[in-house]
Amino acid sequence: MTDVSAILEAVEATVPAGVALLDDRLRPVRHNAAYAALTGSFPELPAPLLDALETVVRTGEPVAGLRVANGSGQRGTWRADCRPVPGGVCLVLTDVTDLVTAEAFRTALMEDTAEGLYTVDSEGRLTSVNRAACEMLGRSAQDLLGRPAHELTHRPAGGGTHPPGGAPPGPAAMVDEVLVRADGSTFQVVCSVVPLQAGAGSPGTLVTFRDVTEARQADIEAHHDQKLESLGRLSAGLAHEINTPIQFVGDNTRFLADAYRDMWQLLVVYRECMAHELGELAWDERTARARKAEEVADVEYLVAEIPVAVQQTLEGVERVASLVRAMKSFTYKDTAEQSYADLNEAIRTTLTVARNEVKYVADVHLDLAELPEVMCHRGDLNQVFLNLLVNAADALEGRAERGEIRISSRLAGDTVVIRFADNGSGIPAHLQQSIFDPFFTTKGVGKGSGQGLALARAVLDRHGGSIAVESVPGEGTTFTLRLPVNGRREP
Amino acid sequence: MSGRPRVLFVDDEPRILDGLRRSLRGRRAEWDMEFATSGALALELLARTPFDVVVSDMRMPGMDGAELLAETSRAHPHAARVVLSGHIEPEAIVEVAMAGHRFLIKPSDAESVTAVIEQLLVHTSASHARAARRLAGAVQSVPVLPGHAEHVAGLRAPDTGLETAVRAATGDIGLAAKLLQLSTSRFFGGRPRNSSVESIVHAMGAPMVQAVAAAGERLAPAGWHPGAGPLLEAAWRHAMATARLVERVASPANRPHAQAAALLQDIGRLVCLAGTDATPATVDLAAGTRDGVPFRDVAVELLHLWGVPAPVVAAVAHRDTPHRPEPAGLGVAGALRTAHLLVEQARSGPAAGDHEQELALLLDHPQLRAQATDWRRAAGEALRQAEPPACAAHSCTVPAGRWETKG
């Protein structure tokens, strides 16, 4: 084995790199197949590489590990090593495109992304942690690496754990957790935990998480805003619903006062007729006077109208009273705990408070089956019913004929199924998936903020239930709510 | 038509109509009352027999109140239009503002309803009662003068401030009149401190003023009487100068009313010279009449229909009547008359000797002598400051409507 050139030739043919020998004017003297394959599609070496090669020829100093784009607009990076040889230069080119991409990927994940990321080994000790995770946890990477992750990031007796023995294989679900910062304060995250097979080592775990404290806060505020929005809309209608009976109760009462006065005057005449001071006055004369007074008072009219006026007055008072009762029930303030409630009653209550939103555009048909009481947050469900009712009314607004809204309730096993159906314009198929997105709205500015259905879905989720839509454009829309009678099963 | 005034009530809630029927029963000897449960029914009744007053709810299924009243103003302009509503949708409020004469909020007691109807049954024009009512009743909004659109154009910017709104409203006679009308009702904003345009704009807020101005622009007339240009221009300049001067002539308490009266003094001319599509009108420019009715009679009837405060209506009515001042004070009418004569003289020179004696007497009033003001000079000053906008001075090419011109 002393034939060096044979050895060199074998090396030249075997190395996974392009090797070329160039003369002092950088013309190729010889090169291997890998070099031809690497540079084949590029007629010229890229300018920075040519510059480097010239420098090597001129100075006789080698250049190692130079990274250059492969030129000609094709994505790729070469590593170039240049060493002077007598009468020229030896160039070794390696394609490091994959390496560069992986490095960039790693930098993005470890340095730039806003999501927290760390990995732990089979003992739960931190093996790597990115910048975002350090910032969120309020600790430095040195402080974290090699230490047990769970102890550092969880409250001593807190919930959520990393599953012992690593995460179950397969794609992970997002889970809610509360993490602890170095200063002891906490923040809400959603995180995913996946197994990480790092080569021959024992199984590890990769955890990514996102701080959702502000988003959760915004959710609560959006919920509150949506309630205020619908209350604002309702209040004008409620004022109308209350002012109408007040107007006619006032008018009827005023009539009753006038009628009482007229009756009283009639009574005075009767008394006079009966008075014995009239002495000789003939019976005919007395009845004539009485009849005249009755005519003046229009007794027939009063006798017919007074009972009706009284009845309508009482009806008006009852209308206001029932509206006030419904308002009180509708704005029922939920406690943190769910309680059993009559959902049919909740539907009727909602219908009463929203009557003014609906009555000009649609007839409402109730088809309510007998239901057991359902474990729920009643105030939240009232809000959902209101949103669906107002949406249905809006879908029917501006049509030539009155629309129809059908609300039904059924019991199916241990699930209550409630449907809100309208025969309005329907929702185009391509929008049906978007309607539950927050801030999605087709209503004009000021008419709705697009949170109604998003809120409905969130409320149903919290109850372990569901909301679904079926809609045929031109025929109408049906929303179907499903609620477990006994509330959400604790996981 | 029989002698008894006829009143039509419209509401989709039968209980409301029942209640009104009963509570207004005491009026049955004086009025013929009819009740309709829908706009369509109301129009049928109106087509059958004329009514003097229509009182309507706003939100009703099918034809709503604003549509009904707008149609009434077109087809039955002699019928005064009253809104009686518990709530007006924000989207409909401007339509209502244009279509109605008076605005009552539910609940309103029978006395208020009766009082408004009784006022509206009064015709202000002694000699042209029905014709003046018909001409004034057809008006939903007083048009922006040709060439003066930029006063209200400033209101189109979405973030218009109160100051801009006040300036626009004091520069536009029609807008000022509409705001004065609407300020009497709580549907359109808070209660203004007084009847000055400034207080009204502040109480209503800029967005409402913007909406009202925009609605007024939408109702712009199809054209103006062919000879209207110079007359309208003179009316505008006179109104602006008088409004400026009357600020100083009127006593502090009377200032808001006097300012309003000065702005509105020639509103009849605007209303009568604006074309309407429906009826070709006969205008006598020299006599200042339309269909034989003096412009001023139409103005007074309109302001009365709109419920503009009585001192303002009276001052406009008596602007051309020689004024004999009370020693106690000039009052709104006296202040307007004085400012009017002063500006008139400043414009045409002292040759207008007719009223010299009256003016001298007015200027001798203690209220004016108490101020060390050269009133004639002040009038000249006010007139100079009331320069018309550049475009208006030249643009007397006014789109013409359908007219038959006399004289």
UniProtKB/TrEMBL annotation, chain A:
The lineage of its organism: Bacteria, Bacillati, Actinomycetota, Actinomycetes, Micromonosporales. It comes from Pseudosporangium ferrugineum. SMART domains: HATPase_c, PAS. This is histidine kinase. Keywords: ATP-binding, Kinase, Nucleotide-binding, Phosphoprotein, Transferase, Two-component regulatory system. It holds the Pfam family HATPase_c. Its EC number is 2.7.13.3. Residues 173-224 form the PAC domain. It is an enzyme of class 2 (transferase).
Automatic annotation (TrEMBL), chain B:
Gene3D superfamilies: 3.40.50.2300, Hypothetical protein af1432. Residues 6-121 form the Response regulatory domain. Residues 142-322 form the HDOD domain. The modification 4-aspartylphosphate is found at D57. InterPro entries: Bact_response_regulator, CheY-like_superfamily, HDOD, Sig_transdc_resp-reg_receiver. It comes from the Bacteria. The keyword Cytoplasm does not apply. One of its GO terms (biological process) is phosphorelay signal transduction system. Keywords: Phosphoprotein. The keyword rRNA processing does not apply. PANTHER family: RESPONSE REGULATORY DOMAIN-CONTAINING PROTEIN, STRESS RESPONSE REGULATOR PROTEIN 1. This is HDOD domain-containing protein.
